[in-house]
Design a protein that fits this description.
single chain, alpha/beta, eight-stranded mixed β-sheet, two-stranded antiparallel ribbon
Length: about 270
């Protein structure tokens, strides 16, 4: 099972975009969905009205949907989970997903996520992760996270799987906080590479590599128009080159504070502005 959830767990839509790419390239077929009634605040995640054949109106409710991919070249099938982080009853929500895991004899659960961090867009995407045991982490070459603090539905679901004896791993791509708008194809691509490694199955990437290259070039062009942003990115690059420890999720307050500290270190411009 490969799962990704919109919201807190999905900076730049990188994780859910990875699941969408897998669904398209692996010809996924619907498997089921969770009843959203007890899990979502519909004033936050509103249902949408759609037209069918330009005449009939239908309501599409926000929920968590599952699909299955039959991969001839793989030793097992893959269940994809594309969800929205629930507003209520997280334990019951994860218990329902765990029942799907049990019913379909899932042997491994892979959670994908993305976080905002103080990283430069010009460098390879940092992918941190965690596993159910040290041996698995070492085998997958995971950069172990030491993060302690608030977690999202991905973390809760992974913990429940481990408690139930289901091997579960997670991969988190770092998205530059100064370019957090979706899409983030470079981060999506990094997550898909980790999926390839753990499944030992080629993932058709389509136009993603070209999109990632274009995204980086566009961000660089925009950043070049602002001297302060350019110098800030350079400082992030220098910090990465110094081989500092992996970065943890950045809150809005910490991002703002870090940028303000950087500007103070630079001092006033020659024209007197800061």
């Amino acid at each position: 099972m490969i799962a990704a959830f919109e919201g807190w767990n999905d900076a730049g839509d990188a994780a859910t975009s990875a699941v969408e790419q897998l669904s398209l390239t692996w010809d996924a077929v619907p498997l089921g969905e969770l009843d959203p009634e007890g899990y979502y605040d519909f004033q936050v995640s509103r249902p949408t009205v759609k037209l069918v054949d330009g005449v009939t109106r239908t309501i599409e409710w926000p929920t968590t949907r599952m699909s299955v991919c039959r991969l001839p070249q793989a030793a097992c099938d893959v269940i994809l989970v594309h969800g929205i982080e629930p507003n209520f009853r997280w334990k019951a929500f994860c218990a329902e997903l765990l029942q799907v895991v049990t019913d379909h004899n899932v042997t491994t659960v892979i959670s994908l996520g993305a976080l905002l961090a103080d990283v430069p867009h010009t460098r390879p995407v940092q992918v941190t992760g965690s596993a159910h045991d040290e041996a698995t982490a070492e085998r997958l070459g995971l950069t172990r996270s030491t993060y302690e603090g608030p977690t999202g539905i991905s973390g809760v679901f992974q913990d429940l799987c481990v408690q139930a004896g289901i091997p579960a791993v997670s991969f988190w791509a770092s998205v530059p906080h100064y370019v957090s708008q979706a899409p983030s194809p470079k981060a999506t691509l990094a997550l898909l590479h980790r999926v390839e490694e753990i499944l030992d199955v080629e993932v058709p990437l389509g136009a993603l590599p070209e999109q990632a290259t274009e995204w980086e070039a566009e961000v660089s062009q925009i950043a070049a128009e602002d001297e302060e942003i350019t110098e800030y990115i350079r400082s992030l690059e220098e910090r990465e080159e110094a081989d500092e420890p992996p970065l943890e999720p950045a809150s809005g307050e910490s991002i703002a504070a870090e940028f303000e500290r950087y500007l103070r270190r630079r001092g006033p411009r020659p024209d007197g502005r800061r």
